[in-house]
Design brief:
There is one protein chain. Helix content is 17%, strand content 38%. It has 329 residues and is of the alpha+beta class. The strands form 6 sheets. Strands 1-2-8-12-11-3 form a 6-stranded mixed β-sheet, sandwiched between helices. A 5-stranded mixed β-sheet has the order 14-20-19-16-17, with no helix packed on it. The longest helix has 16 residues, at 47-62. It is elongated.
Length: 329
């Protein structure tokens, strides 16, 4: 069955002024079509599609579901996989997200592409002919949010409450995933009994970014390539301060709580705060995002100006600091 379009949702926090959020549509199993497209690899890198897959598995894990395997063929099809329309040999369709972006439509049916019986070819028809013939589904979204950093809350209930945590993510991806998780049809695809999936994105000339995620239970057997030695990746990027909370002034005899939220692309290791060079508090960290607070009492400090310095270190030894002056009056 088809899920109804969902009402636009409130976007997560982000930098800059938000713009319109499009409706999102989900679909379940459809009939098998009668032609076999020729596989073609995706032609471009797709960091937004990759990020949408990361958030999908983050939500699944937080809600007690096993991670879905990223299927390269499904990811390619969701993005820009090329296939020929069965009744129009001169019509080459560039996957799901890219085709919708190129031709300006938003549908689970492939615009202008018909089967021999005159019915419309759907995304799930194409999946069946690629060998994904059991349970399968598709989520699609579009929005005009940019790539500025936002905070995505994952593992939430359908009404947005009871979240397990937050993670930094580009606003356009966070809005798409938030919309999926707030809609029963999309959420059922994300948390359903599939075992593999792929997501893709494409940016249209008018500024709309289109997303497609396709899901399957089982699929064609592909011989695994010979293993290659893992590449040695050296982390040279220091962690970042996402935000800092607190005050710049204290009255004598009183105190204030100050805090910091830090993030790293690989793994955090340590966060500390010093006042006038003296260690006030330190924490051992793990994961990629952390928030910590410390109470500063004015009774510890003389009147005047004091330097408060936060220092965060990641597992590779990269360091970033953030400092401000605290005035005791």
């Amino acid at each position: 069955m088809d899920a109804d379009p969902v009402t636009p949702v409130r976007p997560p926090a982000r930098h800059g002024r938000p713009r319109a959020l499009a409706a999102l549509v989900a679909v379940a199993v459809l009939a098998v079509a009668a032609w076999v497209p020729t596989p073609a690899a995706a032609t471009v890198a797709d960091p937004m599609g990759d990020e949408l897959m990361r958030l999908t598995n983050l939500d699944r894990g937080a809600l007690g579901k096993a991670a879905l395997t990223i299927d390269p063929t499904l990811a390619s099809f969701a993005r820009d996989y090329a296939f020929t329309c069965p009744t129009e040999p001169t019509m080459t369709v560039r996957g799901r997200a890219q085709d919708m972006a190129d031709r300006g439509y938003f549908s689970h049916s492939v615009a202008g592409c018909l089967k021999a019986d005159g019915s419309t070819v759907s995304a799930l028809d194409v999946m069946a002919d690629l060998g994904y013939r059991t349970s399968r589904g598709e989520n699609i979204a579009k929005n005009t949010y940019g790539a500025g950093e936002a905070t995505y809350a994952y593992g939430c209930a359908i009404d947005g409450t009871g979240c397990a945590g937050t993670t930094p993510s580009p606003a356009t991806v966070a809005v798409a995933q938030q919309g999926f998780m707030a809609s029963s049809g999309h959420r059922a695809n994300i948390l359903g009994g599939y075992d593999r999936f792929g997501c893709g994105s494409a940016l249209a000339a008018d500024g709309w970014r289109y997303y497609a995620c396709v899901f399957s239970l089982g699929g064609p057997v592909v011989e695994a390539p010979a293993p290659t030695p893992p590449a040695v990746v050296v982390d040279t990027t220091p962690p970042t301060f996402v935000r800092r909370t607190g005050t710049n002034a204290l009255n004598a005899g009183y105190g204030r709580t100050i805090g910091a939220t830090v993030a790293d692309g690989v793994r955090l290791a340590r966060l500390e705060v010093r006042v006038d060079g003296r260690l006030a508090r330190a924490w051992t960290l793990s994961g990629t995002l952390a928030e910590r607070h410390v109470y500063i009492s004015a009774s510890w400090l003389r009147r005047g100006r004091h330097l408060v310095r936060w220092t965060v270190r990641d597992a590779a030894g990269n360091v970033r600091t953030s400092a401000f002056y605290l005035y005791v009056r």
